[in-house]
Design goal:
Blueprint lengths: L3 H17 L8 E2 H8 L4 H13 L9 E2 L16 H8 L4 E2 L2 E2 L2 H4 L3 H4 L1
Parallel strand pairs: 1-2
Antiparallel strand pairs: 3-4
Helix pairs in contact: 1-3, 2-3
C-alpha cells in the first residue's frame, strides 16, 4: 500500500508534468519557475520529476525545461546528451554551447501565463 509521502510525490510529479505540458513549442521554462508556480517544492524536485518522466517514458516535453541561466543542464537525462538540443532546435529554439540563445526572449514563466 502506498504511503502518504509516495502519494504526495506522485501528485507533485503529475502537477509538474501538467505545467510542463503547457510550455509552448519554441519556448523554454526553468526548473525554478515551475517550482515557484507550484509552490510545492524546489527546482531540484522539478528536475527529479522530469528525469523520472524520461526513464518512465511519460510523454512530457522535458526538453523545454532548462536551468535559470538557460543552460541545458538536464541533457544527460535524455537517451543521448545532444537529444535535448536537437529537440529544441526542431522547435526553432537556438542553442549554442549547451545554452539557449536569447534566453530572455524564449523564456516562458507559468506564473505569467496560467
Amino acid at each position: 500500500m502506498p504511503t502518504r509521502k509516495n502519494q504526495l510525490r506522485e501528485n507533485y510529479f503529475d502537477q509538474v508534468y501538467d505545467v510542463v505540458a503547457l510550455i509552448p513549442e519554441g519556448k523554454v521554462s526553468t526548473y525554478g519557475a515551475i517550482a515557484d508556480y507550484l509552490a510545492l517544492g524546489s527546482a531540484r524536485m522539478v528536475g527529479w520529476a522530469l528525469k523520472q518522466s524520461l526513464s518512465a517514458q511519460i510523454e512530457v516535453p522535458a526538453h523545454r525545461v532548462v536551468n535559470s541561466k538557460g543552460e541545458l543542464s538536464g541533457r544527460h537525462g535524455f537517451a543521448h546528451p545532444q537529444m535535448m538540443e536537437e529537440l529544441l532546435k526542431l522547435e526553432g529554439v537556438q542553442v549554442k554551447n549547451d545554452k539557449v540563445v536569447d534566453f530572455a526572449a524564449t523564456l516562458w514563466k507559468p506564473a505569467d501565463h496560467l
